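Notebook, bench 3.
Goal today: get a predicted structure for GPCR fungal pheromone mating factor from Mycena metata so we can plan the truncation constructs. The sequence was checked against the plasmid map this morning, with no discrepancies at the termini. Length recorded as 330 residues. Pasting the sequence as submitted so the record is complete.
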Amino acid sequence: MSGALSAAAFIAFALAFLPLLLHLRSRNIPLLSIIAWIAVSDLVYGINSVIWDENIDIVASPWCDITTKLKIGANIALPASTLVLALRVYRITLQKGRLGMPSELGVCLGFPFIIMVLHTIVQGHRFDVYEDFGCTPAIFVSIPSIIILDIPPLVASAVALIYCSLALVNFAKQRRAFLLLTRQPHSSQITKGGYLRLVLLVLVLGVWNALVIALTRASAYKNGLLPWTNWDDVHADFWLVSAYPLALVPADILGWLYFSWAAVPISSFFVFGFFGFGGDTTGTYRAVGAWFNASMLRRGTGFQSTVASHGSEASQADLTKDHHHGRSVA
């Protein structure tokens, strides 16, 4: 089974990494953040599945210390980045500029880092190791863990869905104005298809993130909460590493383990489905294919010059500019 897990994770990583390359020039911070967090998570999952293939050996502890924190960060980073993207698509319908880059980076990167640090409060021990899955974060299930780890992503997902709904309502009401805006010379980067892809991605990820968080955390808390008494009691065995062979994991817990693991690769398919196809991206794929063919046959002018003309189109496809100031807002 581990071979299937690692293969699925690496395939998902490739599917997320391609749109990331195609949209780097867009400077769409929330979109790039969503894709980057998903891609990094896929890569971590794949490496973990290789290291702990049919074993629960306590190895690569520093790797686990880092990646378990990244998993905690990703759990909030994806809903938070989706919220910022939802705010972008909403502000487009109001013909307003995007938030400043520092604000977007603060929500998409800074806030997850804060949650990673705060996780230490409810980190009862170092980490857990599951056969085939590798290291996972340790969480002292308690009221503080609900406040720190569960409420923020649920709230972010809910607010993202609200902004997305408002954006769709405004788009329907002002459809003619939006179409006129796309025809303005200084707004040539706005496309109806690109805008709708952003809206649909927010809608899908908002629902998916909320569903995954609600179901997985409800499963974790089904046996009740532990009393968070004081720091010393909660962290008495902080350096403990618990290891679990799959044969000893109860069937219901194992099912939720598979579900929570699969959530990130599934998100990769969502991203690729919305941004891995279309005329603006297939042109880049053709350019890469032409470069590869030329390189293998020792002909052609090189990859960079070939991709540049196509890649610029792909990277600009989902950009929008402020109607009054010409700033990128998507």
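Residues 2-316 form a domain with the Rhopdopsin 7-helix transmembrane proteins fold (CATH 1.20.1070.10). Confidence is low (pLDDT under 50) at residues 184-188, 300-330.
Flagging this for group meeting.
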